[in-house]
Specification:
alpha/beta; Amino acid/polyamine transporter I; elongated
């Protein structure tokens, strides 16, 4: 299959990104926005840039993780599933066509300067040129890249000239009032002009054509955002400082007006011509991009099949192009220019809220395939700011846009119910997210957890060979283990049968066909060789297989079911909470598998001679001591049973605890002892004690801080602070 050539340099990507932003946001919007806030218009543009920054950073990360997957629609579908993918596809389609309709209305206003038609007929002029754009898109007439660069250059030169001649003429008297509607009016204006920066993330859709995308894509987005915010803020300041507010607030062709004031009639005509060229180019590219969303959704079986048809001669998605232009025509005829701008901003704000949420979902679930070369800084605070600020802006846009967004969710749900039933893809959130009940109802009944059925065995069909059915322990290897040999050796220490099943699992996105991975890669071959050598040296019966999957948690769950194993043993980085909203694969498995579950945190210890068993309140001591004894027998190690008690605990209680523990240890075969430490800080006490041992064995914590439970981001502090390797056990009741 042919791949897109990575030919776009950083400069080219910046030009494309600026071209996506340069248009109605500065040529049409400023006057309408100034009516809401006054001379603080420039501040509204600046704050809007700050609010959109998280989306730019998040989309940079998503695009470098999926550099050829096609943009926001795919990111949202991958993270949240086809239902929200359907809703987002509709939302993105509407936001782009609304922005294009807004550009055409502005185009008509600028054209009326040169053609001298009644302003009341400008919408009809816009419709005529919409028909021309429709034909151009159906005929497949391609934009010439050099022409687009020329248009962007001319627009920037025009705006730069306005700044040079306009800044010295700014009148202090016109800069008051600064806030005509107070702070609330300013926030409302920030939401209103938000759409001006929407084009900053468009370049993510062409990430597959960018040279060194992990570096150039984030840089291009940030640099273009800085450049355009500087232009917007400066031009807005010049506009409010040279045009009286009474005139500016009714003006939808402000660049013509300021040029006419600064340079006279002919300079004004030249600025109007630049506005015409810029806005018609923006409208054309908007139709081109918008029509692709319903087309892609039809291909993905989320819309009727006929919408995925292409013209037999021109090879263009004729149905979706006609549909897009038809809806644009209705928008131009029915809605006034301010409502169009508000709706466009509302849909774009909603999509960027979801983009920021995607990063949180994909990071917190630790999806194995999600490995972006570029990671957004200050995670998750940047994303949370983007989400919270987006919700606030959405509210301040008013009731109409908010109701429109809710309506799109309802329409998307209905469409999905009719056309998405056959879709088998599921999002990462649906896989690893769960209801609070699943977290709280942590018992098993009749061989399954409450309300959770066993997974189908088809989850592990894509294996190199066959699984053994009598393995006592299954060890999934995900490629992020410090030492696969040490993990398998720990698993062998837990094993009560003669055979151990190790499976190297590779998780790939849903967009990648599993059949592509028909040959073993060098890493898999190397891993098999190393485990074979371990089996011979330690006299362990290890069966090794390799699997490729779209859902790693499903596959591990199915492995546990098919082998009927006693233990599932995995590598661990001390994070495995099952969050109410989302969880990582380990957290999901904790609430779904029916075998005992061991997590091994490898801190580099290779020779285990001393084992520390730290029991937490509420644990069944006998079960944990039996497992610890088995591990000690395997390594010929000594065992210490540790209790950390409050400093003010009575001596009699301490003595009784020691007697009870010594009585339990009488049944172990290894050399053992009891240690009791008085310390009110159990984490610190265990951390200090672990320095004298090679392996710390813990149970699963029963209670977690509610914030960590909610977001699934917390770590086991005992394991995190341990100086030695840690084995955390989750055992059947």
């Amino acid at each position: 299959m042919k791949k897109l050539e990575r030919s776009l340099s950083l400069t080219s990507v910046i030009a494309i990104s600026i071209g996506g932003m340069l248009g109605s946001g500065i040529f049409v919007l400023p006057g309408l926005a100034a009516a809401k806030t006054g001379s603080s218009l420039w501040l509204a543009y600046l704050l809007a840039a700050v609010c959109i920054l998280p989306a730019a950073l998040s989309k940079s990360e998503l695009a470098t993780a999926m550099p050829s997957s096609g943009g926001t629609y795919v990111y949202i579908e991958r993270a949240f599933g086809p239902l929200l993918g359907t809703i987002s596809g509709i939302g993105l389609w509407l936001s782009l066509l609304l922005k294009s309709a807004f550009a055409l209305v502005g185009f008509g206003a600028y054209l009326s300067v040169l053609v001298k038609v009644d302003p009341a007929y400008t919408n009809y002029i816009a419709l005529i040129f919409l028909a021309i754009i429709l034909m151009l898109n159906i005929l497949g007439v391609k934009k010439v890249g050099k022409v687009q660069i020329v248009i962007v250059t001319i627009s920037l030169v025009t705006l730069g000239s306005i700044l040079i001649f306009g800044l010295p003429k700014v009148s202090p008297e016109l800069l008051t009032p600064f806030l005509i509607e107070g702070n609330l009016g300013l926030v409302s204006t920030v939401a209103f002009v938000y759409i001006s920066y929407a084009g900053v993330t468009k370049v993510a859709a062409i990430a597959g054509e960018i040279k060194n995308p992990s570096v150039n894509l984030p840089r291009a987005m940030l640099l273009s955002l800085v450049i355009m915010s500087a232009i917007y803020v400066s031009v807005a300041f010049v506009l409010v400082g040279n045009i009286p507010l009474d005139a500016l607030q009714k003006d939808i062709r402000p660049i013509y007006t300021i040029a006419d004031i600064l340079g006279g009639t002919y300079v004004g005509y030249a600025a109007a011509l630049v506005g015409i060229i810029t806005l018609i180019s923006m409208a054309n590219s908007g139709v081109l991009a918008a029509s692709r969303f319903p087309f892609a959704m039809a291909i993905d079986e989320l819309l009727p099949k006929f919408m995925g048809r292409i013209h037999s001669k021109y090879l263009t998605p004729v149905v979706t192009i006609i549909l897009t232009c038809f809806v644009m025509a209705l928008v131009i005829l029915i809605l006034d220019v301010e409502k169009i701008a508000k709706l466009a901003s509302a849909f774009m704000v909603t999509m960027f809220i979801l983009v920021n949420s995607c990063v949180i979902v994909l990071r917190e679930t630790s999806a194995q395939w999600y490995k972006p070369p570029y990671r957004s800084p200050f995670y998750p605070f940047v994303q949370l700011f983007g989400i919270v600020s987006g919700v606030i802006l959405l509210i301040f846009l008013g009731l109409g846009p908010f109701v429109a967004v809710i309506s799109i969710f309802i329409v998307g749900l209905i469409i999905y119910r009719f056309f998405g039933k056959k879709v088998t893809r599921i999002g990462v959130l649906r896989k690893y997210g769960h209801r609070p009940a699943l977290y709280l109802m942590y018992q098993r009944k009749n061989g399954k957890r409450n309300g959770v059925n066993k997974m189908p065995e088809s989850s592990v069909n894509n294996l190199d060979g066959q699984l053994v059915s009598n393995a006592g322990v299954v060890v999934p290897l995900l490629g992020n283990e410090n030492s696969p040999e040490m993990l398998v050796e720990i698993a062998a220490a837990l094993n009560k049968t003669d055979i151990l099943q190790a499976v190297n699992i590779t998780e790939v996105p849903n967009q990648t066909f599993l059949d592509v991975f028909v040959e073993e890669n060098p890493k898999t071959i190397s891993l098999e060789r190393r485990l074979s050598r371990l089996a011979k040296s330690q006299n362990i019966n290890i069966d090794f297989e390799a699997a490729v999957t779209h859902e790693v948690a499903d596959t591990i769950h199915a492995l546990s079911n098919q082998t009927n194993c006693d233990w599932l043993v995995m590598g661990w980085n001390s994070r495995s909470h099952s969050g109410i909203l989302i969880s990582n694969p380990i957290g999901w498995l904790l609430t779904h598998i029916d075998s005992d579950f061991a997590l091994f945190k490898d801190n580099g210890v290779r020779n285990i001679g001393r084992v520390l068993l730290a029991l937490r309140p509420g644990r069944k001591d006998k079960n944990f001591i039996a497992v610890a004894d088995r591990v000690c027998n395997f390594y010929k190690a000594t065992l210490t049973l540790l209790h950390v008690v409050p400093e003010n605990l009575e001596e009699e209680q301490v003595n009784n605890m020691e007697k009870h523990s010594l009585n339990l240890l009488k049944k172990v075969q290894t050399k053992s002892e009891v240690e009791i430490i008085r310390n009110d800080d159990a984490i610190s006490a265990i951390s200090i004690a672990s320095a004298s041992y090679d392996l710390l064995i813990l149970g699963t914590p029963q209670k977690d801080n509610w914030i960590r439970v909610l977001f699934g981001t917390g770590k086991d502090k005992y394991a995190e602070k341990s100086a030695c390797s840690v084995l955390r056990l989750t055992m059947k009741d």
